Amino acid sequence: MTKWRRGAYIGKFQPFHNGHLKCVEYILTKVDELIIILGSAQYSHSLNNPFTAGERIEMIRLALKEANIPHDRYIIVPVPDTNGVHSEWVARVLSYSPKFDVVFSNEPLTRRLFIEAGFNVQNIPFFNRTILSATEVRRRMIDDENWEELVPPAVASYIKSIKGVERLKSLTIKDKL
Amino acid sequence: MTKWRRGAYIGKFQPFHNGHLKCVEYILTKVDELIIILGSAQYSHSLNNPFTAGERIEMIRLALKEANIPHDRYIIVPVPDTNGVHSEWVARVLSYSPKFDVVFSNEPLTRRLFIEAGFNVQNIPFFNRTILSATEVRRRMIDDENWEELVPPAVASYIKSIKGVERLKSLTIKDKL
Amino acid sequence: MTKWRRGAYIGKFQPFHNGHLKCVEYILTKVDELIIILGSAQYSHSLNNPFTAGERIEMIRLALKEANIPHDRYIIVPVPDTNGVHSEWVARVLSYSPKFDVVFSNEPLTRRLFIEAGFNVQNIPFFNRTILSATEVRRRMIDDENWEELVPPAVASYIKSIKGVERLKSLTIKDKL
Amino acid sequence: MTKWRRGAYIGKFQPFHNGHLKCVEYILTKVDELIIILGSAQYSHSLNNPFTAGERIEMIRLALKEANIPHDRYIIVPVPDTNGVHSEWVARVLSYSPKFDVVFSNEPLTRRLFIEAGFNVQNIPFFNRTILSATEVRRRMIDDENWEELVPPAVASYIKSIKGVERLKSLTIKDKL
Amino acid sequence: MTKWRRGAYIGKFQPFHNGHLKCVEYILTKVDELIIILGSAQYSHSLNNPFTAGERIEMIRLALKEANIPHDRYIIVPVPDTNGVHSEWVARVLSYSPKFDVVFSNEPLTRRLFIEAGFNVQNIPFFNRTILSATEVRRRMIDDENWEELVPPAVASYIKSIKGVERLKSLTIKDKL
Amino acid sequence: MTKWRRGAYIGKFQPFHNGHLKCVEYILTKVDELIIILGSAQYSHSLNNPFTAGERIEMIRLALKEANIPHDRYIIVPVPDTNGVHSEWVARVLSYSPKFDVVFSNEPLTRRLFIEAGFNVQNIPFFNRTILSATEVRRRMIDDENWEELVPPAVASYIKSIKGVERLKSLTIKDKL
Fold it and tell me: How far apart are CA D97 and CA D94, in angstroms?
């Protein structure tokens, strides 16, 4: 089995859910050290990006601790995106992040950009079910459905402690005065 | 009755209409001095943001003069937005604006951001009817309906003097060559 | 017949197609020298803007060479857009481009901004058919239809050499993990 | 004597001092209405730009009130600068500001840019003495000399109320750990 | 003795040297968890900022591992600076970083901005000697003096592995053709 | 002798002088096609960067025509710089420019960045004399010395036609009111 020294896993984690956790656990069987690239780091307080980078770092650390993943096996690196200038995004990631040997991603644009830059890009095999999506988690939060079952318990509890659902709901109210 | 020294009223004013004027008059019963924060100051010449900050300052001054509101009771402060980086927007407003004690707004994101920053945020009680919206004013301009009745006479006359309706209509034409 | 020394033709050219080529040929009957302003130069790798500025420069040069238009009759100038700050866009074009006497465009916002800045703006008379649009070329690329007939042969061949259709298709795949 | 409807007076006002006040009084003999363009609006908390735009607006209003200049004779417009992209700066000022007929400035770059844009640019005749400069005011603040005599009393008192000298001094301390 | 849950330590770490390490060790006696804010994250390849954020993260992790500081006692957060817009910098740090209770810094601007924002800001008591500065480390690198004694062995060895001294020296050569 | 298909020559050309022309002629003996990357494209109207990108494009075209270099042997590509974010600059150049096989430059930062990105970077052998520098040309313009002898006649004549020396001199006047 191929084993790399360092792999990068790239996502927005709005919020970090059970699917993300399974990906992390899977990639850690393939690499010695995992770099979690937290993309769109500058955005928060919108329906698609409710949480700040700092809040997302907190979530990931809590979830990985709960899953007994040691701190020395992963590095979290927040990276602001390039406002749609995709041709500069790989260079930005490479500048913010320690070096890595392989990229894990199912996201088409990420895959395309790293492939064109000559990187080894691996698919993550199977956790991509409809229900395990951050979009679905946010929808359930807004619609008062059971979102907690989709995220690690430590993340659910953290989101409650910062009144994250209240924030998300408050952003859905329309006002056009 | 509570009375504050200074209140901030935040909007885009694309264009300034009768609902905005009523809000200003209401807030002026609550505060000594009103700071009108003119948001998204950098945008113009689009369907949602047709007028420049300079044109909107002009409109507001004309409307408030017509309504006999003395110049020394308000300050207009144009503030460029932060391109979706909402977590920095309150800091930007505080940097561009003289200090204020209370924020008046019905807009959910504005309310949320100032509440999280620890501000006293007040609702504006009643003028938020469907018909009194900038969206409706712009729709009527495009559809050749009576938009003038929705804005103060001085604003209608100013918009005509700068051929504002012509500008807005010209932006609705599609071309995809 | 009016004849100007220099005219500017403004577009995004995503990609450069037969309609664009006809426009170039038409304008060259009206001006001694043509400046081709390649707008939104910073964008690439998205469904609406798949190609980099460099790739678009390459396409235009190849197409114009194939059409026997001499290199000394045109200048290609890539210009990054102003992220929606339309009021600064004319100033940006004027700064990046050699001087010109007339603007050729059917695009409403371009026309409006140059007209307000006092420029002579001319329509391009007739090539604006539904089928000759960059949107249609990109749609056919994605749907495996005949897109090659809509672009000059040299452009079709160049796009194939850089695997442009593969890039565009890869960006249509959805992933929301 | 020439009299214009509206003139623009452009400066950074770090801080607003007696020389600025004399300029304002001079220009008001030449125009009906004065637009005070407060440049480099985004900068503060540095040795050259210690005060925020909001603080500078406050200073100017206090100084002009003290000098019995009515509020309806002037408009203060903060404008962020263009990070060294000088070719776009006039367009930005024109977008943020209500229209004006003439520009008053002794600053070479400002004069050059507005002259090249076709504006009527007037010198301000005589108040430009070494001692009446914002640089000198800031130097005296740092060196514990009499800076108060260089600014209107209302400005001195405002700067004290916000502990402006303490802020400026704190920024002069070097630390290179 | 006061003990806080989380403290932030803010620096550029160009490169991370023995003085930084002593600061980290000192602060860890005062807090349960340390957040290392890596400022000016976007800059590299200049005389004052030779190393990328990714390289600086690598250095800090190697040095702290060598010093037997457990991974779960610190979090490294790279934060891009605000291009001189100091009034927005605290908001940016708060957005990128998990929450903290106290800031440790001897840098005047950092101290000033966090104090004005209402934070508890602590001095770091004694390691601020001339010789232990990143400026001195870079000077010695350029002048072929003993820079290695100023940094932790793991950092020296990492910098050599990426040919950091060669990079720095190459940037000192002048060319003005 | 090695001969490449396409080489990039990178400079600011403030203004284009005889040394630049010799470089172009030299590189054209080594490559079939030359891409002239006009860096810092967004800057103008300062002492170090007096001319706009458009004006610099004009100079280069006039000089190369005068030197009988055919239009089909070179491509001029203006590229805005990345505001000091050097790690993204190579990606930006690659995005704006058609592809090239080799970079010609004596400028240390340019060389370093392209070398780290894996490019073939060649020195330009001999034209780098003190007198043939853009800095010297600008100094002579300001000091009323013979700058014309340092630039191609067509460039001298163009700079006079746009009153370039007058612009540069006007920017040297100090005003600190």
Answer: 5
State mean pLDDT over B102-115: 95
Q: What secondary structure letter does DSSP report for E72?
A: G
DSSP structure string for D112-153: HHHHHTT--EE---S---TTS-HHHHHHHHHTT---GGGS-H
pLDDT single digits (tens) A39-81: 999 999 999 999 999 999 999 999 999 999 999 999 999 999 9
Phi-psi region of C84 (alpha: psi -120 to 50; beta: other; left: phi over 0): left
CA dihedral D9, D13, D17, D23 (to 10 degrees): -10
* Amino acid letter for position B68: N
Residue keyed to tokens 């607003």? D16
Output the pLDDT for position C176.
Answer: 46
Q: Best interface-test mutation with E: which of B86, B87, B94, B119 has the largest number of E CBs within 10 A?
A: B87
User: Considering CB atoms only, which of A58, A65, A95 is closest to E98?
Assistant: A58
Residue F131 tokens, joined: 């007198």
3 state DSSP class of D90:
helix
Residue F6 one-letter amino acid: R
Q: In the D/F pair of chains, how many CB contacts fall below 8 A?
A: 48
Mean pLDDT, rounded, for B112-127: 90
Q: How far is A132 from chain C (nearest CA, A)?
A: 7
Q: Are residues C170 and A112, on separate chains, in Cβ contact within 8 Å? A: yes
- Chains in contact with B, counting 3 or more C-beta pairs less than 8 Å apart as contact: A, C, D, E
Three-class SS of residue C140?
helix
A3 touches chain B (CB under 8 A): no
Contact between residue D55 and residue D62 where contact means Cβ atoms under 8 Å apart: no
Indicate yes or no: CB of F54 within 8 angstroms of CB of C78.
no
> What tens digit of pLDDT does each residue of E114-123 get?
999 999 999 9
pLDDT score at F176: 46
pLDDT digits (tens, 9 = 90+) for B142-164: 999 999 999 999 999 999 999 99
Q: Which residues in chain A have Cβ-Cβ distances shorter than 8 Å to B86?
A: 43-46
Q: Output DSSP code: residue F65.
A: H
ipTM for the assembly = 0.94
Is residue B102 within a helix (H) or strand (E), and if so which, with residue range? strand B102-104
- Chain C residues within an 8 Å CB radius of F75: 57, 61, 76
pLDDT per position as a tens digit, C126-168 = 665 656 899 999 999 999 999 999 999 999 999 999 999 999 9
Would you call A109 exposed, middle or buried from its count of C-beta atoms within 10 A (0-12, 13-18, 19+)? Answer: middle
User: C-alpha E128: how far from its chain's center?
Assistant: 13
Q: Contacts by D105-109 with C-beta closer than 8 Å and gap 24+?
A: D105/D9, D105/D10, D106/F175, D106/F177, D107/D10, D107/D11, D107/F175, D107/F177, D108/F170, D108/F171, D108/F172, D108/F173, D108/F174, D108/F175, D109/F45, D109/F46, D109/F171
Q: Is residue D48 within 8 angstroms of chain F, CB to CB?
A: no
Q: Do A52 and E96 touch (CB under 8 A)?
A: yes
